Amino acid sequence: MEQKMLHILQNCKNIRELKQTHLQIFIHGLHHSNFILPKLITVSSAFNLLDYAVSIFQNSCCPNVVAYNNMIKCLIGQSHKEALRVYNRMKVSMVEANSFTFTFLLKCFESSEALEDGKVMHGETLKLGFGSSVFVQNSLLSFYANCSEKLHSAYGVFEEMPERDVVSWNSMIGACMNRGEIESAIGLLDKMPERNIVTWNSVVCGLSKAGNMELAHSVFEQMPERNEVSWNSMISGYVRMGDAKAAQSIFYQMPEKTVVSWTAMISGYATTGDLKSAEYIFNHMPVKNVVSWNAMISGYVHNHMFDQALCVFHNMLINGKCSPDQATLISVLSACAHWGSLEHGKWIDSYIKKNKFHLSIPLGNALIDMFAKCGDVENAKEVFHHMSKRCVITWTTMVSGLALNGKCREAINLFDQMCLGGTKPDDVVFIAVLSACTHGGLVEEGKRAFDQMVQEFDIKPQIEHYGCMVDLLGRAGKLEEAIRFTERMHLKPNAVIWATLLFCCKIHGNEDLLISVTEKIMDQEPSNPGYLTLVSNLSASFGRWEDALSFRVAMRQQRMEKVPGCSSIQVRSKVHEFLAKDTRHVQRKEIYRALDSLNGQLKSESDCAIRILQ
Question: 309: pLDDT confidence band, cut at 50, 70 and 90?
Fold first, then answer.
């Protein structure tokens, strides 16, 4: 009967079948069988029923070492404290631990929080005579490499090992590479009596991640054999360095290209802005997976080609071979947000709900950002309130979204709610709060937020925080206070801050400050066409025609042109983009006729209002 139940248990395809089999095991009185119990625990864990597995184990009569080991193994990546409780029960029950017990137990200790408990287990291994077990010692070496800030303890275990295998050397080399100790890793490689492909790959991968591609290439050339990991590590390394040509060279030398290699090349070309080459690689891939599609979509988003990103997403759905994942949806929502396409954004929101995607923190943040930037603040708030977990980025996105849509006081109230709820603010959320105060003209609230940032949360102001405060004070007409504020800054004011003050001079008609602030801007960024245009226009508005002309002449002589402003609007399913003084749009005649009509009506209304006042 035990063999029959074990066979049925091993062939369970879902949770329902597992629980039915468990019931049959119980009916036949086999629930305490040390032959079936370990497998029952393992299968339960495989179906992500960890609590169920723990319950089975806790209700077992006298589990053997295999059952204990399987229970500890199921707790890897979960709770090292729970794993310790299982081990302590094992000791109390007088069940003798073996090398697998400590191998699994030490794998449960993955963070610095587990360091002290791991040291206790180190003592246990020595006390029970496992100091000579290469398997246990390798696990100890990995534990110290993962949990200790420095590698002294890992080196200590490595040096004291009576016997080392290739795993011991690879673990030590990998640990050195992960900590950036390249010389030590190369030294160990030279001393290593026998190397395998994992050893070479560990070094090449470590050097690639460290950005030392010259040395990585040298080691790569020395390799007696290479596999997919070797080639992909080199390609990825060159991609990270932005060297698409070197990555391409390795890619075309590769004897068998994998989907990882093709995808790495797409990312590489996209990073350098070469979207034509990225498209070529993408279109010629023999097999695509979801990561390949994501690389192409995010490449377009990264290069501000949002319509193309949405087009690729549409083709992905038509293709049907790969279903979008959360990363896909986050990239596409970003495209919708930047493009201002609410219709596309709403469709993706419906797709998420229809396909029952888990509303993770990154996905929720992307939805909030999209709705807020597209002007649908109510839907942004709905997503925010539906999120079961939030991080500081979630709060920042919502605060920023409210401010962007003119709900500045609500944004500040939300920030206060965040602080009361125990979420610690960072420097970015304070930029959002100060921007909300600026948009809403909330001077006192802005001052309070700035003081709160510095005094309560001990956050050192950055140039962006200072810029927000200068803008807030300047727009409110407190120009002298804004000047005093810039003088007290611990950072040197940049051209952006002086340009902000300059713009405030125009708003409030303060010609006295115009000259001194203009000098500050010209000292720092004399060749910025945007600032030169601003200074020229302001000089003209104050009747300083000679100054305005001199700035215009300087721009012409240096052949500088201000990049024209661009705006977009979605009409039905199409997004229309416009530049300042645009002459490219197919309906430009109708648009300019409508603008002239509106200008005429505004002028008429203005003249009428002036006559009434007179």
Answer: very high
**pLDDT attached to residue 507:** 67
User: pLDDT tens for residues 62-112?
Assistant: 888 998 888 988 888 887 888 888 888 998 889 999 999 988 988 888 777
**For 231-240, 315-324, 383-392, 532-541, which range has the lowest pLDDT when averaged over its residues?**
532-541
Q: What tokens appear for 326 in the block?
A: 């959360």
Interacting residues of 350 by C-beta distance below 8 A, sequence separation 6+? none
Q: What is the 3-state secondary structure (H, E, C) of 297-356?
A: HHHHHHCCCHHHHHHHHHHHHHHCCCCCCHHHHHHHHHHHHHHCCHHHHHHHHHHHHHCC
Secondary structure element (H or E) that encloses residue 252, with its range: helix 244-253
**∠ CA 34-36-39 to the nearest 5 degrees?**
110
Helices (H) and strands (E) in the chain, counts: 35, 2
**Based on the number of CB atoms within 10 Å of its own CB, is 466 exposed (0-12), middle (13-18) or buried (19 or more)?**
buried
Name residue 208's amino acid: S
Please report which confidence band the pLDDT of residue 514 belongs to, taking 50, 70 and 90 as the band edges. Answer: low
Contact 206, 174 (CB under 8 A): yes
Helical spans, DSSP H, in 340-442: 342-354, 361-373, 377-386, 392-404, 408-420, 427-440
Q: Would you state the structure tokens that stand for residue 397, as one six-digit string?
A: 């996105």
Yes or no: say if 66 and 38 are a contact pair by the CB < 8 Å rule. yes
Residue 265 pLDDT more than 80?
yes
**Phi and psi (nearest 5°) for 567?**
-135, 160
Task: Report the pLDDT value the prediction gives residue 150, as an integer from 0 to 100.
Answer: 82
Task: Supply φ then ψ for residue 72, to 5 degrees.
Answer: -65, -40
On the question of pLDDT at 611 being above 80, the answer is: no
Query: Token pair for residue 73?
Result: 């193994």
Note the pLDDT tens digit of each residue in 159-177: 888 888 898 998 999 888 8
Say how many residues make up the chain: 614
CA distance 529 to 546: 18
String of DSSP letters for 448-506: HHHHIIIIIS-PPP-HHHHHHHHHHHHHTT-HHHHHHHHHH-SS---HHHHHHHHHHHH
Q: What angle, 0 to 180 degrees and rounded to 10, lies between the N-to-C axes of helices 326-339 and 306-319?
A: 140
Q: How distant is the alpha carbon of residue 600 from its chain centre?
A: 49
- Judged by DSSP in three states, 13 sits in coil
Contacts of 453 (CB under 8 A, 6+ apart): 425, 427, 430, 459, 461, 465
What would the DSSP string read from start to end of 543-585? T-HHHHHHHHHHHHHTT--PPPPEEEEEETTEEEEEETT----
Report residue 528's pLDDT band, with 50, 70 and 90 as the boundaries: low
DSSP for 16-82, written as a single string: HHHHHHHHHHHHTT-TT-TTTHHHHHHHHHHTT-HHHHHHHHHT-SS--HHHHHHHHHHTTTT-HHH
What is the per-residue pLDDT across 584-598, written as a single tens digit (0 to 9) for each? 777 778 888 888 888
CA distances from 422 to 78, 395, 428, 543 (A): 25, 12, 17, 54
Q: How far is 338 from 334, CA to CA, in rounded Å?
A: 6
